[in-house]
Specification:
There is one protein chain. With 300 residues, this protein is of the alpha/beta class. It is built from 9 helices and 15 strands. The strands form 5 sheets. The protein has a 5-stranded mixed beta sheet, sandwiched between helices. Helix 5 (183-190) links the parallel strand 11 and strand 12 (194-198). Helix 2 (89-100) crosses helix 8 and helix 2 (89-100) runs antiparallel to helix 9 (273-280). The chain is globular and about 60 Å long. The structure holds glutamic acid (GLU). Residues 115, 132-135, 179, 182-184, 218-219, 244 line the site of glutamic acid.
């Protein structure tokens, strides 16, 4: 167990499951594409670590935080109707951040965000953080804060197993669905496809499964989650053709949150928590645990 001067955090062992992940344990069904959840160690007396007047101090003292995540992206952010908590790399990163504020996973309010409402939710204070396959872009950084990246993926295509599409050239003139307000929809239009925009990726994947569109496009990490759920019907094709750097969204009203996010995630990367979070979630969809990406410097 690593001990740190300011925060210390390890995944706690869950007895009896025998699911060792780099010496850490997780709960859930392993090996079938289902994400698991990792226990985090919640910091005690966390509020003392933060300066008065900071949003971190306020959140730590209130013992509450609202985090916007996706509810329909297996491995990234997923919550079934009867689940208490979402699973996926994004909620796991959210749990690590909340734990550093002394907030336990069960005290986090998880709010479903779709791609198109991530900026409005942050600007209107509907959520304190967004962790929702949220690519860092200069345009988004004009209106919200984005700390990170904590993960880098790239855009690919999801097609029916018997589809002939196997290069980006093949999508020219075909109907390809994605989600409104995403980088993916803009990028595929630039490739000459007929874009079809939906609110959510789960609606889009249904279009591919029913044969209503020729392909779906978004980040490879998202597509691999759907392919893992439907291995006989779907496959992910073409090399990544964009770079999507996932960041943690916060409000520009609280610029001090950036350095806290970067410091907390750097510590998770230096210890075991980042790898454990990854292996328990996207790792279950067959994604290799990546080298933790270097994070951007926070704005002055
Ligand atoms: N990462 C891309 C984006 O932030 C696509 C995935 C999504 O829409 O959440 O737009």
């Amino acid at each position: 167990m690593r001990l740190h001067t300011r925060f210390h955090r390890t995944a706690a062992l869950v007895a009896g499951l025998g699911l060792a992940l780099s010496g850490l344990a997780a709960c859930g069904d392993a090996g079938d594409g289902d994400a698991e959840t990792v226990d985090v160690e919640v910091e005690e007396d966390a509020a003392d670590a933060f300066d008065d007047g900071t949003r971190m101090k306020e959140l730590a003292e209130s013992g509450e935080i609202t985090i916007g995540v996706k509810f329909d992206q297996p491995g990234i952010g997923f919550k079934g109707a009867t689940d208490d908590m979402p699973t996926g790399i994004d909620p796991e990163i959210g749990k690590i951040l909340a734990a550093s504020l002394g907030i336990a996973p069960e005290d986090i309010t998880w709010k479903e965000t779709i791609s198109d409402n991530r900026e409005p939710y942050l600007i209107d204070g509907e959520v304190d953080l967004v962790l929702a396959s949220y690519s860092i872009t200069p345009e988004r950084r004009e209106v919200v804060g984005q700390a990170g990246p904590y993960y880098v993926t790239g855009q690919q295509l999801l097609v029916a197993s018997d589809s002939d599409i196997d290069s980006l050239d093949d999508v020219k003139g075909t109907e390809v669905c994605s989600v409104t307000g995403s980088t993916s929809l803009e990028n595929i239009e630039a490739e000459g496809a007929e874009p079809r925009g939906f609110d959510t990726y789960s609606e889009c994947v249904d279009q591919v499964l029913s044969g209503a569109v020729d392909a779906m496009t978004t980040d490879g990490a998202i597509l691999l989650g759907y392919a893992a759920e439907n291995p006989d019907e779907l496959k992910v094709v073409v090399d990544p053709f964009s770079e999507e750097r996932y960041g943690v969204g916060y409000s520009l009203d609280h610029p001090e949150m950036c350095q806290w996010i970067v410091d907390t995630l750097t510590e998770a990367q230096d210890g075991d928590a980042y790898d454990a979070a990854f292996e328990a979630t996207l790792g279950q969809s067959g994604v290799d645990t990546p080298e933790a990406p270097e994070m951007d410097a926070c704005p002055e």
